[in-house]
């Protein structure tokens, strides 16, 4: 007689006492086990949560953009690499959104008004576009593969510079997330740089297309280095990184890679207000969130 055999789906369900979740990564070991989650003295919890949303939303949205290349990348090996990069970012997003929810940042949110402590799923799937704090850089359409690698190079370079400094944050959770994330982001940056070099110094057609990709991505640099009021307060409290402080490092890295790839380095754009950080987004984010959130919103009580 054959006894009951537990399926992988049963195992996932049992991992949470029979309470299924939508979450990406739910059921795995807690990566922040043992980290002090107390909000540091003198730090406004709402500001801390808002900052975690900024970093988490960038990771979540860019991860969604990268997954659009699955089954469409130019090489099977590259498909795996892009998917793994997206998973790394998704893991960062999960930790950052969980931190934002744990400090009650969205207790006043329209969509989450009844959520006292919204988890990462609620924040990912049930906020409207104007409640997101991601930048236009990660929200923009992928374009072709050259443009995607140019965007990943810029995004990973900026994020790596920020995370390297966040390892010294007074918030133990942010410091732990950053310490884990710098290794992932170093790979993301170097992987994108290798592709930009390969395409830029390749055939005339690959050079033309990646140059067009760089030119399309470049204007998005304008809003990346202007701090919001939230960031300024948290910088003063020793928690956050002033985005202006990483500008020179980012410029040096990008200039070095583009020069070696025989690509034209455009004039650095003038700083502009950080529209995305303030909840101002174009239609690209609305369209992307329609795909990201559609199933969860159609079946909000579903479990897996």
Automatic annotation (TrEMBL):
It comes from the Bacteria. This is Ring-1,2-phenylacetyl-CoA epoxidase subunit PaaC. GO terms for cellular component: cytosol. Pfam families: PaaA_PaaC. NCBIfam families: PA_CoA_Oxy3 (TIGR02158). InterPro entries: Aromatic_CoA_ox/epox, Ferritin-like, Ferritin-like_SF, PaaA_PaaC, PaaC. GO terms for biological process: phenylacetate catabolic process.
């Amino acid at each position: 007689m054959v006894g009951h055999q537990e399926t992988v789906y049963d195992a996932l369900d049992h991992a949470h006492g029979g309470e299924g979740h939508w979450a990406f990564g739910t059921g795995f070991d807690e990566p922040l086990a043992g980290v002090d989650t107390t909000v540091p003295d003198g730090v406004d919890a709402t500001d801390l949560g808002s900052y975690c949303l900024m970093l988490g939303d960038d990771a979540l949205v860019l991860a969604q953009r990268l997954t659009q290349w699955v089954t469409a990348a130019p090489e099977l090996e590259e498909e795996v690499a892009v998917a793994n990069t997206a998973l790394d970012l998704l893991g960062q997003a999960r930790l950052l959104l969980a931190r934002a929810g744990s400090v009650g940042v969205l207790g006043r949110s329209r969509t989450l008004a009844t959520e006292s402590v919204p988890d990462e799923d609620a924040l990912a799937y049930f906020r409207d576009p104007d409640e997101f704090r991601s930048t236009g850089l990660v929200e923009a359409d992928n374009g072709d593969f050259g443009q995607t690698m140019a965007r990943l190079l810029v995004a990973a370079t900026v994020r790596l510079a920020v995370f390297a400094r966040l390892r010294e944050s007074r918030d133990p959770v942010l410091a732990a997330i950053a310490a884990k994330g710098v290794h992932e982001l170093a790979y993301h940056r170097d992987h994108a740089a290798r592709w930009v070099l390969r395409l830029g110094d390749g055939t005339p057609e690959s050079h033309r297309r990646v140059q067009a990709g760089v030119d399309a991505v470049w204007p998005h640099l304008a809003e990346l280095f202007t701090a919001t009021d939230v960031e300024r307060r948290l910088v003063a409290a020793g928690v956050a990184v002033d985005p202006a402080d990483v500008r020179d490092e980012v410029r040096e890295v990008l200039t070095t890679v583009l020069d070696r790839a025989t690509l034209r380095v455009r004039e650095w754009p003038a700083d502009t207000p950080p529209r995305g950080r303030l909840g101002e987004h174009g239609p690209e984010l609305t369209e992307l969130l329609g795909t990201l959130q559609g199933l969860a919103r159609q079946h909000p009580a579903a479990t897996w």
